[in-house]
Amino acid sequence: MKKERLKKASALLTETRLPISDIAVNCGFSNQGRFAKIFKEEYGSFPLEYRRKSS
């Protein structure tokens, strides 16, 4: 289930300009800090870095 939430988050990061805090909440994470930590563990970069690399 965590991987599904992260996959959705990665899509929102690359396909939208939603704030990262909104993406974290929309994907079921309790806060942006926790989301960023888990995202980095899975994708190797923080959400903002991931978004910048994809644009």
| Annotation, overall tally of beta strands | 0
Distance between the termini: 27 Å
Sheet/helix structural class: mainly alpha
Order of helices and strands: HHHH
Q: What is the CA-atom radius of gyration, in angstroms?
A: 10 Å
CATH topology: Arc Repressor Mutant, subunit A
Q: Helix segment count?
A: 4
The CATH class, by name, is Mainly Alpha
Shape: globular
Report on this model:
The model has no long low-confidence stretch (mean pLDDT 96). The protein is built from 4 helices and no strands. The protein starts with a helix and ends with a helix. With 55 residues, it is an all-alpha fold. Pfam families: HTH_18. GO terms for molecular function: DNA-binding transcription factor activity; sequence-specific DNA binding. Residues 1-53 form the HTH araC/xylS-type domain. This is Helix-turn-helix domain-containing protein.
Q: Which features would summarize this protein structure in a list?
A:
55 residues; mainly alpha; Arc Repressor Mutant, subunit A; 75% helix; 0% strand; globular; HTH_AraC; transcription regulation
Write the SSE topology.
Layout lengths: L1 H14 L4 H7 L5 H12 L3 H8 L1
Concise summary:
One of its GO terms (molecular function) is sequence-specific DNA binding. This is Helix-turn-helix domain-containing protein. With 55 residues, this protein is mostly helical.
